[in-house]
Amino acid sequence: MQDPLPYVIGILLFLALNALFVAGEYGLLRLRFSHFNPALLDELRGNTRYRPVIDNPHRAVQAMRAGILVCTLGYALAFFPLARAALAAGERAAFGVETFGSALLAFLLAVALHFVVAESTPRILGLAHPRRALSFALLPTLLLSWAAGPVLRAFEYTAGGLLRACGLSRDAVETLDALDLEAQIEGLEGPPGEEAPPANVTQRILKNTLRLRELRVDDVILPRKQVVYVDVNLGVEENLRLARSAGHTRYPLCDGDLDRCIGLLHIKDLFRYAGDPSRLDLRKLRRDIIRIDGEETLESALAKLLAHKMHMALVIDEFRGTEGVLTLERILEIIVGDIRDEFDAEEEDLIQESADPGESVVSGLALIHEIAERFGVELDDEEVSTIGGLITTRLGRIPEKGEEVRVDGLLIRVTEVDETRVIEARLRRLDEPEEDEPPTDFTD
Question: Which one, of 103, 7, 3, 16, lies nearest residue 68 by Cα?
Answer without folding.
Answer: 16
